[in-house]
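Lay summary

Proteins are chains of building blocks that fold into shapes. Our project writes down both the chain and a compact code for its shape. Here are two examples, one after the other.
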Amino acid sequence: MEDVQNINKIIMEIRAGAGGDEASLFAGDLARMYQKYALKKGWNFSIVDASESGAKGYKTLVAEIKGQGAYNTFKNESGVHRVQRVPSTERQGRIHTSTASVAVLPIVEAKVVEVRDGDLEVTFCRAGGPGGQNVNKVETAVRIVHKPTGIIVASREERTQHANREKAMDVLRAKLFEAQREQAVGSVDQIRKEQVGTADRSEKIRTYNFPDDRITDHRIGKKWSNLEKILEGDFDKIADAFKDSN
């Protein structure tokens, strides 16, 4: 099995958890933090598929990140992230607690994970959303079902069917590879459950506390201030803390 420590391409999946619209906004905050940090490192960050919720929120977002050390940098982000803050819609100033889950999967070469064409159910549809007339009028979005495991992946951000199919296959191979690593081929749901739990407020790896301007990682017991700056992509201090803890 391929050494994941040397893999420089990953799939990052972010999902809003408990907390309604505020959870979706928080998922968007996390996505932008990772994107800004990736760009700061000179890495490529491309959205594969996304379900938006409002101007700045996401119900789900799947991104592909390519860069030297990407997996080692982001592998510790898998889990439930909790935010405590006063939502913009809160008129009485009450602090709300919401969550978003993150899953990080290494992308592997096609030769590492064999996927038979006969095991795939591929459908095409209109992508919708931003991207111009081509995106809206042509069936470029791709949805792939891996029939033996029931895993479903999709890609709609590229402009051609072929490009979206390749992106979706990257996601599928990443999920199948992770399932094989965990010796749980049959469903990726168990892997996600092990990585992110149920996304309940009580299951968290890290808390982003806005009133106290503090981020706390509950696994290594570290705390950082300047929360807003970190969310703007100043992620080195967190990444370095995990390198030091290994």
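And here is the second example, written the same way.
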Amino acid sequence: MYARLSNNLIKEIKKQKREKSYLLFLDNLKIIKDALAIGLKPKYFLTYDENLITDNIKSLMDKDRIFLVDYKTIEQLSDSKTPQGVVCIIEYIPHILEKPKTNFLVIDGLQDPGNVGSLIRTAAACGFNYVYLIDSVKITNLKLIRSSVGTIFNVRVFELSRETFIEKIKEWHLKLLKADMNGTNIFEFNINEQIGVVIGNEGQGVSKEISNLCSHSISIPMKNNVESLNAAISGSIIMYEISKNDFEKLL
């Protein structure tokens, strides 16, 4: 039998969610299992139905962290239109800023959580194990987490200001590339060194400050008078093309 969460504690949790603290409110069972599987420690696992507490979840967390609440509370803590009936609250500890050891993704001023989550998912799939979020949507955004399908737990994501990133990229002496209509065709572009792919805001593109740091510009050829692709698709094409040799080694 699991305890019921007190009304006072429920009010405190709702307050913390409104204040946008570094708490992840995970409402998808697969993502919750992925987060627990890598060792993240939940503060609370809430559900209105004991049958949703699977054996896998029981094995990954302490029983005294599991509480029963009413369905209305689940709806209030979940950002999903159709909640799965669970909310797992985990404190997100930001990574300490560090120099990338692989190719890396730079997201410059992108506010759409769906696009950012999809980009992080592709970065993980392509081995771009470091992601730098510059003045962009918060990593704790639930839509971002859902769009990443939990891959934010598989790569190192850093939130930082544009000024800090510029300072660090100069200190680290790393190369950046950005998409540009007048750039080199991505399918004719060859690079055999570590590189960072910069994806900018869909309205304004990559900021001038970051553009000035890019040593390469590439373009994605398109037919039927299509002028552009959205940020997530563009970034995915670029990262996969840059990583193609790594995938060929796996065949």
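What can we say about the second shape? Residues 133 and 159 are 5 Å apart (CA to CA).
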